[in-house]
Design brief:
By secondary structure, this protein is an alpha/beta fold. It is built from twelve helices and 19 strands. The protein has helices at about 40-50, 95-100, 105-110, 155-160, 160-175, 190-200, 215-220, 235-240, 255-265, 290-295, 310-320, 340-350, and strands at about 5, 15, 20, 30-40, 55-60, 60-70, 80-85, 115-120, 120-125, 135-140, 145, 180-185, 205-210, 225-230, 245-250, 265-275, 295-300, 330-335, 355. α5 (about 160-175) runs parallel beside α6 and α5 crosses α11. The protein is globular, with a radius of gyration of 20 Å.
Length: about 350
C-alpha cells in the first residue's frame, strides 16, 4: 500500500512509497482504511526532532476512515464502521484514568515505540502509535472512535486532534468566563480552534496574535475581535486592558519565548494556558518573586485537558448547531502525492489545515 515515510529525523521531505505494509493485527486490534487526514504542526515537529519519535516513521495522527477488520476481543466495532482516529486512547485502568484525567493516560504513548508498519528494508513506526499518512493502519481498538453518519471524514479528522485540543484549552482547561478578555498567540489550526472555544464561552474581547497576515485575517472570520502582529500586542494590551493584561492568554506555538510573552501579557491573577507542544530542552522561566507576587495561573493543556470522547461529542454538537465552523478551517486539499507541498504551506503559514484525501 501507499504511505508517506520520513527516513531520518531532521529531513524536511517525505517520500511517498507503495511498498509499505500495516502490521501488528491481533487481539484487541483493528485495521482501518484511512479516508482523510489532517496535517498538524505536531507532525512537522516530530519530523524535525522537536517531539521525540523513532524513525523511520509515517507521520499523521489526525485521521478518519472506516473499519476494515476487527480482531478477537474487540467489541463495539464492526467492519464498515466510520471512525476517527484517537491518537491518545484511555486504558481506563491506570491512576490517571481512575482520577478522570484520561488525557494523561500513558498507555497510548507506549504504542509509539512499537512498529506498526514494515517495508522490505525493515520496520517502520507510526507517529504517536498511529501514522495516518497511509492508506491503512493497524491500531488498538480504543483508537477507533465511531462517528455519526452525518460527519464527513475530513471534519472528523480535524476533531481527532486540532479542534479538540484548541476547543478544550478554552473550555476545559482555562474555563474562559463570559465577558472576559482573551489573547491567543499562534493562529494555526489549533489557535483558530482556541479562538472558537473562547467565542463559544462568551469572551468579550479575543485578540489573535500571529506574524502571518493571512492567519490574522482568518482569525477575524473565526471569532477574533481583532488581530495583531506580535509587535502590535503591547499596544493592544494597553488599549483593551488599560495596560493591566488579559484575563486569559493562550500560547499555541510551543516555544519558551512566546510562553514568556504570554506570561507578560496576562494580568495579575489571570490565566496563562500553554497549548503548544515544544521541545524538551526549551525551558520556560519565571522568577520566584513574580510567580508569588503576580499569582498568575499557569495551566498546561494536554489534548484539550479533558475526556477526549466527551470532547469529540461536544465538538460535533457545536458544529451541528453552527456554533463552530470546521469546514472553513480546511484551506487546502491534496492527495498523498502532494504532501510535501502541504508541508511547505504549513511551514510558511499559508495554510490553516490541509486535508489529505486518500
Amino acid at each position: 500500500m501507499r504511505a508517506a515515510v520520513l527516513h531520518e529525523i531532521g529531513q524536511d521531505k517525505l517520500e511517498v512509497l507503495d511498498d509499505v505494509e500495516a502490521v501488528g493485527f491481533g487481539p484487541g486490534k483493528v485495521r482501518l482504511r484511512i479516508r482523510a487526514t489532517g496535517l498538524c504542526h505536531s507532525d512537522v515537529s516530530a519530523m524535525s526532532g522537536v517531539l521525540p519519535q523513532p524513525a523511520p516513521f509515517i507521520p499523521g495522527h489526525e485521521g478518519a476512515g472506516e473499519v476494515v477488520d476487527i480482531s478477537d476481543g474487540v467489541t463495539g466495532l464492526t467492519a464498515g464502521d466510520r471512525v476517527l482516529v484517537c491518537w491518545l486512547p484511555a486504558c481506563g485502568a491506570c491512576p490517571s484514568c481512575r482520577r478522570g484525567q484520561t488525557q494523561l493516560c500513558l498507555a497510548g504513548f507506549m504504542n509509539a515505540g512499537t512498529p506498526n508498519f514494515k517495508r522490505p528494508g525493515g520496520d517502520v513506526f507510526g507517529f504517536a502509535g498511529t501514522g495516518t499518512f497511509t492508506e491503512e493502519v493497524v491500531v488498538d481498538a480504543g483508537c477507533a472512535v465511531p462517528i455519526p453518519d452525518d460527519v464527513p471524514y475530513e471534519i472528523a479528522a480535524l476533531i481527532g486532534c486540532g479542534v479538540t485540543t484548541g476547543l478544550g484549552a478554552a473550555i476545559n482547561t482555562a474555563q474562559v468566563e463570559a465577558g472576559s478578555s482573551v489573547a491567543v498567540i499562534g493562529c494555526g489550526g489549533v489557535g483558530i480552534s482556541t479562538i472558537q472555544g473562547a467565542r463559544v464561552q462568551g469572551a468579550a474581547q479575543i485578540v489573535a496574535v500571529d506574524p502571518v497576515a493571512s492567519r490574522r485575517e482568518a482569525a477575524l472570520r473565526f471569532g477574533a475581535t481583532e488581530a495583531v502582529s506580535p509587535d502590535e500586542l503591547a499596544d493592544a494590551k494597553q488599549r483593551i486592558t488599560a495596560g493591566e493584561g488579559f484575563d486569559y492568554v493562550f500560547e499555541v506555538v510551543g516555544k519558551s519565548a512566546t510562553a514568556r510573552t504570554a506570561y507578560e501579557n496576562t494580568r495579575r491573577g489571570g490565566t496563562l494556558c500553554v497549548v503548544g507542544a515544544g521541545a524538551m530542552d526549551d525551558n520556560f522561566q519565571v522568577n520566584m518573586f513574580e510567580l508569588f507576587f503576580d499569582e498568575k495561573r499557569i495551566l498546561p493543556s494536554m489534548y484539550g485537558g479533558g475526556d477526549v470522547l466527551r470532547s469529540y461529542e461536544r465538538a460535533i454538537a457545536l458544529w451541528r448547531a453552527g456554533r463552530i465552523d470546521l469546514e472553513s478551517m480546511i484551506t487546502h486539499r491534496v492527495r498523498l502525492d502532494g504532501i510535501n507541498d502541504a508541508l511547505d504551506q504549513m511551514r510558511t503559514g499559508e495554510s490553516l489545515r490541509t486535508c489529505i484525501e486518500l
